[in-house]
Amino acid sequence: MARRALKIVSWTSMALASSGFYLYSNKYLDPNDFGAVRIGRAVATTAVISYDYLTSLRSVPYGSEEYVQLKSKVHRRSAERLRELCCANRGTFIKVGQHLGALDYLLPEEYTSTLKVLHSHAPQSSMQEIQQIQDLFQSFEDTPLGAASLAQVHKAVLYDGRTVAVKVQHPKVQAQSSKDILLMEVLVGAVKQLFPEFEFMWLVDEAKKNLPLELDFLNEGRNAEKVAEMLKRFGFLKVPRIYWELSTRRVLLMEFVEGGQVNDKVYMEKNQIDVNEISRQLGKMYSEMIFVNGFVHCDPHPGNVLVRKCPGTGKVEIILLDHGLYQILTDEFRLDYCHLWQALIKADMKGVKKYSQRLGAGELYPLFACMLTARSWDSVNKGIGQAPVTANEDVEIRNNAATYLPEISQLLNRVPRQMLLILKTNDLLRSIETSLSTRASASSFLNMSRCCTRALAAHKREQTCSLLKKTQISLGESLSLWQINLHELFLRMRGSWLGNWVFALLYWLSPTPH
């Protein structure tokens, strides 16, 4: 018996030693790719973060200044641990971390600022892992132009001389994604048992729904062509052409287009690109997608939105990249959302309450309005178009994200799933506007008003067969659009040198009251 046990131990030791030597000597095998390592790391990180929250705040009076300061430190430590987990496990974990990092006005600042770096520090696959596709090209640059959570992009030249961008999926992401999502589902459920007030299952549900679509690059190619056709009236928009003959579910070939990131003010100044014009065009483009078409590009972080002056014509273009993640809005949701934004712009509080509740906010509609606009409740009541965001108001909103985190997580779990990606998209666009110093400009609200007016009028026309009714609706639409254009002209005149001179002259000529 003892001899048999010794034999088993000897063989086991030899197997372990051989495996260890193989792993050590084989530089292409990464221990991080083993399920046990990934699961163990995720479980350990979740346990440490949960223990930190349970014990660190226990002895401090709730709501005191010391409590607030200590909670901020716990948030920061936890966010850093979460970032390290995402970087180590890669793939799906980085994708989810990027989603959290984009929710600037919905999560505590400690989390969003810490996780935001995942957009620009995604790991790269080695050339050995993607070498099977290199023979298809006359030349292929080894260093990627950019690496993301699910793929990386290389510059290459085809044998017919065309310069292309080649998007290559990271080799192990497909196999790991379903297991990673299941693991996240279990861990989020466990955390909910410890902290019942935090509802983050919506995040897992979104990943479960969207990740298979993002991993299908043929779907991404179709999205790119659809949005290019849908927004073809915008001459400033450039969507790179897809080359289908060499594209597959894991490799996507596109026209190669260069430009600077949309938040790079230095690049724009150097190339004489007007930041205000870029901000207006970006607002037009997204208002059209959300309110009119209901087909929304939901990942507009700066790496996916480039700007350039078109070679030859000198015309300024916005280049829209990465078309894997789109949200399709139902007509009911889209029209309620149009009504809600019209109410917010006009400070119609009855309309704000009505349409917020129709979109699932319930009694939390004031919080929902603040989340949607990233404005204080006081500003919402006065009208979000009446005054720009102040630095103090921005700080107040970010602090409230930490204060009302349980209510925010409850609300995110309650609203229609279509709203989740819209909120993420809103925050990413606001981040770009903040970088360009064009946040909450009057022109952005005017563009939204135009699109809402057009969308609601088109819906009304579809609902009637009467030619007279359709004519009345069209006349009403034209009148509303004319009023918006007149208001925009007034604002532009007031902001110009000539306009200021005219207004000063009119004031001087007006009779002085006695």
From TrEMBL:
> CDD domains, from UniProt?
ADCK1-like
* GO BP of this protein: lipid homeostasis; mitochondrion organization
Q: Which regions form coiled coils? A: none
Which ranges carry the Protein kinase domain? 139-456
What Pfam families does the entry give? ABC1 (PF03109)
> Which is one GO molecular function term here?
protein kinase activity
Show the stretches that span the lipid bilayer.
none
This entry carries the following GO cellular component terms, namely: mitochondrial inner membrane
User: Which InterPro entries does the record associate with it?
Assistant: ABC1_dom (IPR004147), ADCK1_dom (IPR045307), Kinase-like_dom_sf (IPR011009), Mito_struct-func_regulator (IPR051130), Prot_kinase_dom (IPR000719)
> What PANTHER family does its record include?
AARF DOMAIN-CONTAINING PROTEIN KINASE 1, ABC1 FAMILY PROTEIN
What family name appears in the similarity comment? Belongs to the protein kinase superfamily. ADCK protein kinase family.
Function according to Swiss-Prot or TrEMBL: Appears to be essential for maintaining mitochondrial cristae formation and mitochondrial function by acting via YME1L1 in a kinase-independent manner to regulate essential mitochondrial structural proteins OPA1 and IMMT. The action of this enzyme is not yet clear. It is not known if it has protein kinase activity and what type of substrate it would phosphorylate (Ser, Thr or Tyr).
Q: What is this protein called?
A: AarF domain-containing protein kinase 1
- Which gene is annotated as encoding this protein in its UniProt record? ADCK1
